[in-house]
Amino acid sequence: MENLLNNINEYKNEIAEFVATDANAVEEFRIKYLGTKGLVKTIMGEMKNVAPENKKEAGQLLNEFKVFVETKFEELKGSTVNGQESTANTIDLSLPGDTLPIGSRHPVVLMRNRIVSIFQRLGFAVADGPEIEDDWHNFGALNLPAHHPARDMQDTFYIQQNPDWVLRTHTSNVQIREMEKGKLPIRVVIPGRVYRNETVSARSHCFFHQVEGLYIDENVSFADLKQTLYFFVKEMYGKDVKVRFRPSYFPFTEPSAEMDVSCFICGGSGCNICKKTGWVEILGCGMVHPNVLTNCGIDPNKYTGFAFGMGIERPAMLKYGINDIRLFSENDVRFLKQFTSAI
């Protein structure tokens, strides 16, 4: 037993002083001490020569030695791996970097950002809201009670009925949510995706994008609406564009109008884009209906406001000469890489 103890102490001193400079030295250590014919196995074999009364003490001693060797092996392995990694990760910062491909923004995003930026210059903040909406915010609060015939104007995707939950048919739901906050005055522009149960074709899709605007304060008039939209059109389409308003109907505005601009493709002379009329419809607008204000807890005798809404795909198609709305959602890199406004 005494000889075994002396031998183990000598081996420990030898192992403690072992230094590995590379992976080959670590492997030599493993073979010598932990291999099938290594030192640990050999010493473990000495247990048969230990007297029965000393076997318990000898077993503990041998197990401690085995753990000592294994710990040393892990230390050597870790030190050489870290050394190799530090060498491999040495970087020459003076070398030129790799050229990365430059992406481009989606044409709908480009158009949305341009529209929003114009209204932001007029003091409009950007608001957002849920795309899955309850019936009240999508219809009821907008002066469209149940069974109202105007609901048929919008083919709706219903997620759940009784109570009704829908994919929003317009971003007007965010107008309602902003008015319900009760923080007046309100001046917001609302970009977002909307959904309609329509046949997908070159000119229409089951989802598209809108930008809506809302301004509510004391003494807001239709003249304020017109001047706001005049500014937008001039900034968007140029100083020479002509504008006209046509009376229209929307349940949530009164009076209501649609706004046309002179066709900037043919200059008003008539083409396929404007259907030979010389005019292109770009948005709908009107004064917020008093019922809508009341539904949102706003006194219509004290406050008035205007709202407007426009699609994004149509002006994007006109600006970039795109003849099929489906191209916007096909994720074809050949199509998307044509737009050079880099991210």
Report on the structure:
The chain is of the alpha+beta class. It has two domains: 2-88; 107-336, BirA Bifunctional Protein, domain 2 (2-Layer Sandwich). The protein has eleven helices and ten strands. The protein has helices spanning 2-16, 23-34, 39-44, 55-88, 107-120, 135-138, 172-180, 222-237, 290-295, 313-320, 333-336; strands spanning 125-126, 132-134, 158-160, 165-167, 186-195, 207-217, 243-250, 253-262, 279-288, 304-311. It has a seven-stranded mixed β-sheet, sandwiched between helices. The chain has a three-stranded antiparallel β-sheet with strand order 2-4-3. The longest helix is centred in the first third of the chain and has 34 residues, at 55-88. The chain is elongated. The N and C termini lie far apart (76 Å). The mean pLDDT is 86.
